[in-house]
Amino acid sequence: MAGSASLSWSPIDWGDPSGGTIRLWPFLPNVVLTDSLRRTAGDWDGLAFLLPDDEPEIWTDQFDQEKSSPGINRDSISSSGGTLARMMIGMSAIEAIQSCRFPDPEPRRLLMAAESQSGTGSRPVFFVEPEDEEWTEWVEDCADEMVRLRNLARSIFSGRVWKKYLRAAIQNATPPTGGRDEAKADGLAQASALAAAWWYRSESVLSEELCSRRDARLASRLRGALSTLSEGQIDDEEAPVLLVPVMQAWMPSIHSALLKTPLPEHVEEEEE
């Protein structure tokens, strides 16, 4: 099962053999993290998202929607059915934390920090999800896999399947340490389990080969982004750190892909 890995609140630093560090930083979708968890990101020189380059436009649209009609995105997802709706409904019941927030608060906060001119100035940003024929083929293969008979049959019993993955996630979820608010820590553990259950269920409709292809490609492009970041460094500066926000439940898979040291794939810095 996808849920065999623990759900860690600690970042993972992967030292690239060619120089520099890729720092995988865990977050929960649509959840505002505590200041103590935010500080675990440490110092970093560039930012990379496992997302397509049009994601900031989506965040801007969601911000405008929420400004004119608070909660509209949460309500739309909650009424849509499926595991994402179950996650959203479950998170909305956790009173101790800020959840179901749109646009996704932690990735957008980091983007704004990277683009800020204060301090040392803006920092490079990369969106590493590719847009090419190979990636389109992968997306089409995913669509074919999802409509296979076994996956369609499982969708009939979606409630039972959700409970199965939620039980597995609860076993792996723990409260973050270092905070003074026990209720908030417990709330984050609950949100962690809900987000992980959604991720485990989403991954379960894809074959292991499809998941591995995706993670290997993204890992290659993270190495390429780090290489681009390194090329922009001044000679006497320390090796750069590329910060990568990644959903907590997905982090072990991306780390495993990096450990295989895939060849770097060139990625350009996002233009403002």
Structure description:
The mean pLDDT is 92. Strands 1-2-5-3-4 form a 5-stranded mixed β-sheet, with helices on both faces. The protein has one domain (2-259). By secondary structure, the protein is α/β, with parallel strands linked by helices. The N and C termini lie far apart (41 Å). The protein is globular and about 50 Å long. 51% of the residues lie in helices and 9% in strands.
Overview in brief:
By secondary structure, the protein is of the alpha/beta class.
Protein traits:
272 residues; 5-stranded mixed β-sheet; 11 helices
Topology:
Layout: E1 12-15, E2 21-27, H1 35-38, E3 46-49, H2 55-68, H3 72-78, H4 82-92, H5 105-115, E4 125-127, H6 133-146, H7 149-156, H8 158-172, H9 182-204, H10 208-231, E5 241-247, H11 251-259
Parallel strand pairs: 2-5, 3-4, 3-5
Antiparallel strand pairs: 1-2
Using the alpha-carbon principal axes, give the shape.
Answer: globular
The main β sheet shows up as: 5 strands, mixed
Radius of gyration: 19 Å
Beta-strand content: 5-15%
Q: Which strand order do you get reading across the main beta sheet?
A: 1-2-5-3-4
- State the end-to-end CA separation: 41 Å
Number of helical segments with 4 or more residues: 11
DSSP summary, beta strand count: 5
Helix content: 40-55%
- Summarize the helix and strand pattern as letters: EEHEHHHHEHHHHHEH
- Any idea how many domains? 1
Kindly report the average pLDDT value. Answer: 92
* Low-pLDDT regions: none
Class by SSE composition? alpha/beta
